[in-house]
Design goal:
Layout lengths: L2 H12 L3 E4 L6 H9 L3 E4 L3 H15 L3 E5 L3 H15 L4 E7 L15 H5 L5 E4 L5 H13 L5 E7 L23 H13 L3 E5 L1 H5 L3 H10 L4 E3 L14 E4 L9 H4 L4 E5 L17 E5 L10 E5 L5 H4 L7 H20 L6 H11 L5 E4 L3 H9 L8 E2 L10 H11 L5 E6 H7 L2 H7 L5 E6 L4 H9 L19 E2 L2 E6 L2 H13 L4 E6 L5 H4 L4
Parallel strand pairs: 1-2, 1-3, 3-4, 4-6, 5-6, 7-8, 7-10, 8-9, 10-11, 11-12, 13-14, 13-15, 15-16, 16-19, 18-19
Antiparallel strand pairs: 17-18
Helix pairs in contact: 1-2, 3-4, 3-15, 13-19
Bound molecules: thiamine diphosphate.
The site of thiamine diphosphate has 19 residues, from helix 14, helix 16 and helix 18.
Length: 527
Amino acid sequence: MTIAEYLASRLRNHGVRRFFGIPGGPSIPYMEAFRKKGIEFILTSHESAAAVMADVTARLTGVTGVCHGTFGPGATNLSTGVGGALLDRSPLLALTSEMPDEWLKRTAQMNIDHQALYRPITKSTYRLSEDNLTSVTEEALEIANAEYPGPVHIGLPSDLHGRDAIETSIRREKVHVTADELRSEKVRVLIASSRRPLLAVGLTAVRHGLGKELSAFLATHSVPVVVTPMAKGIVSDENPCYAGVLFHALSNRLQRLTREADLVIGIGYDPVEYNYESWMPDVPLVHFDTVISDIPGRGSLRIVAPAEKWFGMLEPLRSSPVMVSLAGEVRNEMAVTLAGMSKGFGPVTVLRILREELPSNAIVTSDVGSHLHLLGQLWDVPAPGKLIMTNGWSSMGFGLPAAIAAAMCCRDVTVVCITGDGGMMMNAGEMMTARRYGIKVIVVVLADGELNLIRLKEGWKGVDPYGVNLYNGSLFGSESFLGAKVMHVSSADNMRKAVREALLSDNSVILEVAVDPAEYVDLVVKV
Ligand SMILES: Cc1ncc(C[n+]2csc(CCOP(=O)(O)OP(=O)(O)O)c2C)c(N)n1
């Protein structure tokens, strides 16, 4: 067996079915070996999109995502999506072609140091060789999937693929995390004495599938819950304990609740989305996590323990009807504000129509910008995985490749990408990827002609709009884009008709929705 065949076979056994990228010459033997083992190569228009697709594939399937880029520019293009997997906590292998040993330090076309490039944006980076083949492959898969999950880079020297694969046996000890007893006692006392507790639930809780445990806990302990954007859906919007999403639109209203808390309990709260310091009152914090993460020092107690132990430790928590009723008031206030905005044709109306028209099990991916702030708070997420975003890395251009990957993973489910026009332009070439593989996605572009979130930030700094206007007139200026139909929408009636038509279409459709962004001013929170 050759090294390329070994890698293909190991990844196939691991559960990998697709890998994403753009090939260079040295990629060919790997693509062939992977194809023969039943791992399909998905050609994208840009490597950053390939890494996003691998990230989202991992999120939806639970199997490590794999992406690939060639020397130099292939590797740098790929790196943007790889950074996403790091800060959005997604297990990923990034495979890049590297120069043979004797060329590594020489001047050569496309030659840069990939190990140095990938060091800060991965959990680990390796250069594969005949000697380390087995250990690197096993370690890479293990590290990518260990808490917090994330990307690992493997450089593939371009002369390595055809050499004989020599397997070496390796035994790896699993590390078990156990709660520290002394701390547990302090935590028990804090929890038992709190009168107005607040739960803050985050991304790590979602990854560990704690939704059921959380709902069961809330059924016996009536305490309010706030969530981070990527944890939306872990508790139902209908649950009386649910207060809202931190950081996103109207989250300043949550202060009425958060400032009343005498204890904050972070449950799998990943500060990568929003630091505690940015919103927490000056009260003790009990933080349950799977790893030692970066949390504020003062008055905080960190419990690093397996996720299934967390709720057991919370048993002594007393219900707080006062806090839950405050949560209800805050939720109501937000709903009234949003309802008041549904009259004109702005982003709130567009999202309301979409929610009414899309099947309840639709998967929505979002790009980054003001529209995400709105979507994150307003979108009723029936279950985790139904609203896919990047709030750790927050890279524009994420939404479209994320939607394509989701549609590849979930063939029978409607997949919709909601994006700003700025973000759409970053990865618009991926419309061709969807077409090439017969993938249908509905792309809703909130076309306000500007980088709205940055325009808002300029306003907060007292600066006139500058460097944020994108175009005049229509974004696409055409009835089709890379073969996909473009529907031009500028009213609520139009919008409803267009969504219905898009749902019936067999192919990808773009809705260019000309919205007035004015309502964002009152929705997006200055943080
Ligand atoms: C790759 C990247 N570049 C820049 C930014 C900074 N940024 C955040 S939101 C935003 C504007 C997004 O504009 P648009 O896509 O039109 O969405 P809108 O804010 O109008 O909803 C920018 C430039 C970013 N997050 N990612």
